[in-house]
Task: structure prediction
Amino acid sequence: MATLLQEILTNNHEFLVNNKYTKEISKYPQKKFALLTCMDTRLVELMGETVKSLLLTIYVFDIKEIFIVGHYDCGVALTSSKDILHNMRSRGVSEQQLKLIEKDFQVWLDPYTDPAKNVLTVIKKLKANPFIPNDIPIHGLIIDPHTGKLDLLADGYKET
Ligand SMILES: [Zn+2]
Result:
């Protein structure tokens, strides 16, 4: 089966041979902000993986602002747990295995139907999270992928 691996390695080789990697990039965030987009925003429970990563950026990498950026016309908003489970079934995942994840996928995917509403929900959850300090503003934006226009949905600090 053809994969992209060889193409990626060839492109990387050409990139290096043509000396395009001219500037070492710092491992520390220079703009001091964290950005959550589409899929990230589904994992913002109190101590979900996304929140743990955010806490790392805040307390270790000195992040000063959080941006939640959703996008209109989100492919995930148009699907459901039923669809993904159906596709898994079609690709050979057993009923026994599907039963183990069905509930989890319903909770994860099915409430997500409106990207703008999702951004606001995420902001509400992050503002309620006691581990995110009050001096970090949390901004909510949504981008139109067809025009690139950003709409501001919310900004500001946690209420104290
Ligand atoms: Zn999306």
User: Anything to note?
Assistant: Residues 41 and 65 are 16 Å apart (CA to CA). The pocket of zinc ion is lined by residues 38, 71, 74-76 (CB under 6 Å).
